[in-house]
Amino acid sequence: MVRSGNLSVDSSASHRRTPSRTVTLGHIQPQAPSYRTVYCNDRDSNMPVRFKGNSISTTKYNVFTFLPKGLFEQVFILLGSLRVVNLELQNFRRIANIYFLGISCLSMTPISPVSPITNVAPLSMVLLVSLIKEAFEDWKRFQNDMSINNSTVEILQDQQWVPIPWRKLQVGDIVKIKKDAFFPADILFLSSTNPDGICYVETANLDGETNLKIRKALERTWDYLVPEKASEFRGEIQCEQPNNSLYTFTGNLVVQKQTLPLSPDQLLLRGCSLRNTEYIVGAVVFTGHETKVMMNAMNAPSKRSTLEKKLDKLIITIFCVLITMCLIGAIGCSIVTDREDLYLGLKKSDWEYRNRLAIGFFTFFTLITLFSSIIPISLYVSIEMIKFIQSTQFINRDLNMYHAETNTPASARTSNLNEELGQMRKLPSALSCNGSMSNLSLYEYIQEERSTGAIREKGFNFDDPRLMRGAWRNEPNPDLCKVPYIYFFENFLTELFRCLAICHTVLPEGDESPEKIVYQAASPDEAALVTAAKNFGFFFYRRTPTMVYVRESHVEKMGKVQDVAYEILNVLEFNSTRKRQSVVCRYPDGRLVLYCKGADNVIFERLADGMDDVRKVTREHLEHFGSSGLRTLCLAYRDLDPETYNSWNEKFIQAKSALRDREKKLDEVAELIEKDLTLIGSTAIEDKLQEGVPNCIETLSRAGIKIWVLTGDKMETAINIAYGRGDQVEIARVIKEEVKKELRKSLEEAQLYMHTVAGPKLALVIDGKCLMYALDPSLRVTLLSLSLNCTSVVCCRVSPLQKAQVTSLVRKGAKKITLSIGDGANDVSMIQAAHVGIGISGMEGMQAVMASDFAIAQFRFLTDLLLVHGRWSYLRICKVVMYFFYKNLTFTLTQFWFTFRTGFSGQRFYDDWFQSLYNVFFTALPVIVLGLFEKDVSASLSKRYPELYREGIRNSFFKWRVVAAWATSAVYQSLVCYLFVTTSSFGAINSSGKIFGLWDVSTLVFTCLVIAVNVRILLMSNSITRWHYITVGGSILAWLVFAFVYCGITTPRDRNENVYFVIYVLMSTFYFYFALLLVPIVSLLGDFIFQGVERWFFPYDYQIVQEIHRHESDASKADHLEIENELTPQEARSYAISQLPRELSKHTGFAFDSPGYESFFASQLGVYAPQKAWDVARRASMRSRPTVPKKK
Predict the structure, then answer these.
(1) Would you say 867 and 949 are in contact if contact means Cβ atoms under 8 Å apart?
(2) Are residues 710 and 593 part of one domain?
(3) Known binding-site residue numbers for Mg(2+)
(4) For the whole prediction, is pTM greater than 0.90?
């Protein structure tokens, strides 16, 4: 029996849960409320419930299911989902596999003119490559699973700690976790070797934050530390069912009929590690796949590039061309076939004799198998290979995007979107959050006499000897400080500094001295504020779960200090809804004070009456700070009498113990005490834009990319950032009132400016409250129209949800390709909503990086990522697709022209093996080299002329006009190759005096075709490397070698008796060599003339740049990443770092479908590779490794 609340229900019913909805990291929402009861240290009581074990398995196959299931997934899995309109790339590739499977089946019937090997061989090769990839990935998953499941943990058995494998761990077990070890399951924290029942946890695997978190056990369970005492523990945990919410936990602990509320502070999640604590004891709550990290270890939403979607349309167009060709042949066959022609040998019983409709019907399917090569089966495999190498070898190893200070290279976490980087139109960004340093600028108006020789501390840039280290108390003339409310100056400033030193969640580390202490903070802003308090004489040096210790230097005279212990009674946490944080503390003398800090609009709404003057003056200072680009914060306090506090605390405890809607009830209770506040001051945080950000934004603007800034900062700060673009912008302020009227008015003004000859560049600035109304369905169109008429859009005071809504509005409403970039957890939804998401590995954690498609260390690297790698990838993929289309169409059309000579009978023109190996062997490598090394202009010129990027925005290289030009080229070359050879061969004779037959002619046409198609690669390449010559020459040579071998052997059961000795006969004639020289030249002459005319009279932008700099040497020829021949020591170190194993794709499928398995297997082989914070699942469960001492 399992109890849920006060009800007793059957155990099976307690686990009849509603299916949990899959939510990715960053979109966490609590699941449907249902509860479980866990009996601690009592396996027998938990046995009837049958909780899931702690063993995990992430493999997709086993020995018996690999082949059938793998083939089923590759070919048939899409048959049940063809109704889906928006298919993914992998699914569309499987549709192509289904097509070729159908063609292979048709080739086994009597109506097929070709051998089954013609279509079965290419399909088998593609499927074999896919199955090998699946097997390799699944083997890696299996190895990882075995390593994780066999890790050991100590559990309590018979009053002693016994090591067991993780896989044998069960819900309710009492476990002992040692320092630096990973938690094997979600564990209820009971006791710790640290005083006051606290421990320190690193959560980098979950949220990317490397700062330590403090966890506190319930005081009732502190004694259960040694095995003798822990064996006496018999408690019941009544908690929520397993869900994917990392930051919430609702439950109660029942010990000896006493109910104690549980919160996330008592839950230690699998994937975290224990730090600065000898060991802890806990009770297992969730195991295996029911742990929170495992329920979050899902693939991010799959994204497809716009080019891939257009490729789907091109494939459909090619299929329509195929159907048209077959219909022409079928109709022609039914017309020209005459049963009276005795040479056909038709009889009454033959199907051809029945009627012309039957003749056309069967001929249609005959031609389908004959022309099936028009759709390239190797296209998708080649594109995936090219994208993979582009990501791993070019983007990840570009030294221009390597940040030496943080030892962070660029990382392409998926290779699906490389070419999408070259077509961006909109760039929503959390621009103000991209700072690499947060400094405190406190009350600029008192900074008159600043010491020039002061040593500035990181995060603090203020120095005034009249105020520092408590000297403000001894200042004889407070008027010099120019602080308002001079009468209250001392009291207000004291409360302000105490608020900074007490109201936070910072953890101190190291020696308790101002010079050596290190603050671990969730954000750089909090660290800057605590550092400021320290420098003003309020040194926060120690924290326990219930106490905060501050060394105050303002007592009596300067130089004297006093350690003051403040008891923390309640903490009202900060969240994006509350936008504030409060603590209730008790002074040593018994005084009760509520300190609160938060956004100015939130604090102003909760001030006591009679503070209008204070509010007015403070608002002026805030506007001054905001216009300077500083991020502001208001601080307030409230004295509490014991009766008021005790009455409120009872409600707070009840809300904290609630199992339903706990967060909502806590917010409601907080509103009861966070009122009647006294404003004591404000701070201003300088969140510096990273180096090169203004230049980067200006360059991107010249490239035709419109910048949208979505930030939570004040409007003045946001406007200041907009001016950081360097443009003269006219600001259109849209306020909350009369939103609809203002939107329409602003739209009319913007359209008026747009029609002027030299109108100013416009920027729209809108705040979060107004945006809430503007995003209403009735106003979205107006908002979108107004935004599209502006050069830039700045949305300030917006929530994470609004960031995602604005991004989706542009993506779906304007149908523009969007790129989102951010560095904080509040940017995750925006990053996932855009076509491409880029995370900046800054100081606000790694959540944005974990949710991104590409990761960079600095905003300025966006220039190289988009203008260089994005442009090149788009150009390369476009040329690869066009070339595939061209070479397959050329090959198929020669067969099509031959059907006119054979009366549309379906007679094959080429040998079966020629047709099979044309795509996968004789023309495969040069196109891959084209996709890897094609480069229209150098990287330096790409950044020097950002206007070149507009070609990608206009999609200049994948228009239907371009497709038509390539199709025309294919028709021309196929006619030249076919007609020149067939016409001239009528009178040609071999050395024995015999005229050429069908297989002599077809072999010669095929040879000319292979040469022309491969040499065409050199004509279309802007940069030709040795690999071009090697692959082009090698492909032609491979065909000749194959022809020599294949035409020289024969067996009784194959069909190559037709081409036996053909190549030797051909090479014995002068005609063969003359045709090999003449036909490819004439066939390529049309392309040569077309390219010359286009370059002279209708040039692309990059061709103009090529002409301007055609006499300049290409400095990047030596290396594709423009690495100089002589590297400095720092550059050499950078290059060495870039060679280390790193995450390749978030869609790899390894290790719980999360990236980063490389460093794990490297460690198994004895090779050290740095571990990354976003490697969620592997580090979540991997056995701990001894700390390697740093070399001095």
Answers:
(1) yes
(2) no
(3) 823, 827
(4) no
